[in-house]
Amino acid sequence: MLLDFKFKNFKTFREETLFSMTPAQKIKDLEYSVLKAKIGKKVHKGLSAAVIYGPNASGKTNIISALEVFKSIVLKGNIKNGDFVFASVNEAIRRLELIPNLSLNAPEPVEFEIKFIEDDILYQYGIKFELGMFLDGEYDRRILSEKLSVNEKMIFERTDLLKIGDLSGIAHLLISAFDRIASMNMSQSNLNKEELFLTGMFKSLYSAQISNNITEWFREKCKVFLSANFIFVSPNVENAKNNQAFFDETFQKAIKHFGIHGNEIAYMKSKENNELTPYSLLADEQAIPVDIFESYGTVRFLNIFPLVVQTLQTGSTLIVDEFDASLHPMALMSIVGAFHNDGINKNGAQLIFNTHNPIFLNRNLFRRDEIKFVDRDDETGVSTHYSLSDFGTSGPNAVRNTDDYMRNYFINRYGSISNIDFSDILEERMRMVMDEDK
After folding, report:
1. Structure confidence by residue, pLDDT tens digits, 142-181
2. Which end of the chain is flanked by fewer CB atoms within 10 Å, N or C?
3. Euclidean distance between CA atoms 336 and 48, whole angstroms
4. Helix residue ranges, H only, 125-274
């Protein structure tokens, strides 16, 4: 369960930005949908969903991009370029020099920090590192700091020196024959300015279990898609055989509800790459790949619905840019509703996505702290992020759960909206064309 993600000096975001999945104080909307995890005597709460609004080019995608870049750094274990294969359209993963904010006059560090709960353990991990200025591919990169806390107790803090905290709370997770003094001496003398301590010496000298728990959460539970068009997911099938059609009962029912009535969808396993490919089965027993026969919206659904099911089953956090593209609003509302339904979402799954569709500005669909905004200053080009709940529940600018969120958004009560009118530009263009034709 993701609780918080902080980042600084990432693309259009210059100042420290907190994207929080922790419920705001005094907000009581849809309380049944709030996720809960008890660690010791303390109960931690998380939001089950979040929707992000903002004009084009405001920086909405950069929030998702920042999390994906942080994920890739943790999984590869360093801040180097081009040595890690990560299937994404996010070029900043392969070229970290694309990260720093363009408005900087001098180099400033990039910072990432995340807080999440996995298997009843609260992890908080962050890194701070130097990349130089934007597009400075020759900069001498180095990690300035790296910190890990487990269940709110500091485990290590790395700067030029290394500090090791009280490890008694994780004694059962330490490597066998752990020697604190020997591990400390070896770690301090072998710190690498570009290598993460978490996935390097901490893993080998302190706790492979903790290091693996964090990397596995990023790999398996933090599902980030910078472009919804690149989601290609099939039902989870272990017993599918080559060249035989596989039918998933749950998936077939969902397909009928979605509106595919004339044919069935089957998955076939290829001998060449062992992958499952969806086919439309026609009445005359012909099988045609869905990307040839079905509409784009149908293909999008066929890829997304299995991903939603997997996310709910595994209690993962699904983060998608423009998740709702080409899907009918009724289907989208049903999916969002599943994450808010404690009878369905039993494993603490979360859904986060960007959108331009105002239909989600609805108190019956999202809590005020789940409705997020991104705005960008026209002069500086710097993005800012805030939630609907940040307006408070009292005072002249307050947002109450009885308000019409959609109406107020379009009359610019919340900001993060642009007045777009191409009329003058198009009229000028047409005059130019007409003058040229004379």
Report:
1. 999 999 999 999 999 999 999 999 999 999 999 998 999 9
2. C
3. 9
4. 180-189, 201-205, 208-216, 249-258
Q: What's the rounded Cα separation, in Å, for the pair 182 and 113?
A: 29
Tell me the β-bridge partners of 123.
Answer: 116, 150
- Classified as helix, coil or strand, 170 is helix
**28: Cβ contacts below 8 Å, ≥ 6 apart:** 401
98 to 65, 133, 136: CA distances (angstroms): 11, 9, 8
Cβ atoms of 54 and 426 within 8 Å: the answer is no
Amino acid in the structure at residue 431: R
Q: Are 414 and 397 in contact (CB under 8 A)?
A: no
What is the spatial distance between Cα 133 and Cα 121, in angstroms, rounded to a whole number? 37
Rounded to two decimals, the pTM is 0.91
Q: How many helices (H) and strands (E) does the chain have?
A: 11, 19
SS (H, E, C) 96-144: HHHCCCCCCCCCCCEEEEEEEEECCEEEEEEEEEECCCCCCCCCCCEEE
How many other β-carbons are positioned within 10 Å of the β-carbon of residue 312?
A: 21
Range of the domain at 28: 1-227+321-438
Scored b (16 or more CB within 10 A) or e, 169-186 reads ebeebbeeeeeeeebbee
- The whole-angstrom distance between residue 112's C-alpha and the CA centroid of its chain comes to 13
Radius of gyration of the chain (CA): 24
**Tokens 């790459």 map to which residue?**
273
| CA distance linking residue 363 with residue 89, whole number of Å | 34
Look up residue 387 and give its two tokens. 């939630």
Q: 232-265: per-residue pLDDT in tens?
A: 776 765 555 666 667 777 877 887 777 766 677 7
Domain boundary among 288, 312, 336: 312
> Look-up: residue for tokens 């993600």?
5
Beta strands in 231-316 (DSSP E): 245-246, 264-269, 276-281, 287-289
CATH number assigned to the domain comprising residue 189: 3.40.50
Are 176 and 212 within one domain?
yes
